[in-house]
Specification:
mainly alpha, Arc Repressor Mutant, subunit A, 3-stranded antiparallel beta sheet, 3 strands, homodimer, 142 residues, globular, DNA-binding
DNA sequence: CGGCATCCGAGTAGATACTG
DNA sequence: CAGTATCTACTCGGATGCCG
């Protein structure tokens, strides 16, 4: 485990203070963090974006195959949202049969980088989390 | 907007390949990324962790006041989960009235750092997202 | 004070069938 | 092929009341 010094903690606290200083007053009914995170950090959206980082251009059914378990409805919803928020670009080719391609925008790529950071962190520590869960569930009785 | 070169995109793709190479075969019914992210990346948990980075030690009602709009039920759920997964430590002082304190573990702090990265990114770009939303909703008719 | 139990309503997900 | 429509099932969040 990467050690964290008290000094670093203080720095972090300062950053936080700057970030949401005013939110302290609980005028944070509109909170951009909550808002934005909510939209692009659900399990499906993350996977979609990660796959689009892997395969630069994907079609609807291609994504559906990769993002295992997602339904048509949810996939098209997510894609629409992600497009609306500017993460990805949708290109339609009016051929027969129709062809639609999805790819990340520059903004999407910038988010992808953050996401990869996070997933690297997750994969590094997921074992630790799983262990922690077991420890608590088997629970030392007292 | 921070520019992203094709070269960087290739690097990112390689990382992804390493990260979930096998997931490609869609044996990813258990996907640690999905799993872990789902638990600590919901809007409430994020705010709880951010606040615990700001106020090192918090009590139940203190958190409740800060995390505006959260209900008792949801708060205690989140706290329990976050504790189970090892993000935070819960200390009970059997006084009267009882006192319970929450604070981040080292693991929690390590996650906090990632979270701050993300929120900084979000605050940098949230305007851009809002604009993108407007652009799409007012929608150039054709 | 902290927080669990219960109930209820709303939104969301999933399965399936259908269309341009 | 790329979705939409529809229906159902279920989970989630909020409100309330109770208890150690």
């Amino acid at each position: 485990m990467e050690t964290i010094t008290d000094n670093q903690k203080v720095k972090v606290a300062k950053k936080l203070k700057k970030m949401f200083g005013h939110m302290d007053r609980s005028e944070m009914e509109y909170c951009p963090i909550r808002d934005v995170m909510a939209l692009a950090s659900d399990k499906w959206s993350i996977l979609i974006i990660l796959y689009l980082g892997y395969y630069p251009v994907m079609r609807f059914n291609h994504i559906k195959k990769r993002v295992y378990g997602i339904s048509n409805k949810v996939l098209s919803e997510r894609l629409k949202h992600l497009e609306t928020d500017g993460y990805l670009k949708r290109t339609m080719y009016p051929e027969v049969p129709i062809r639609v391609e999805y790819e990340l925008t520059d903004f999407g790529h910038s988010y992808l980088k953050k996401l990869i950071d996070l997933t690297e962190w997750v994969t590094d520590y997921s074992d630790l989390i799983i262990e922690s869960r077991k420890a608590k569930s088997q629970g030392v009785p007292k």
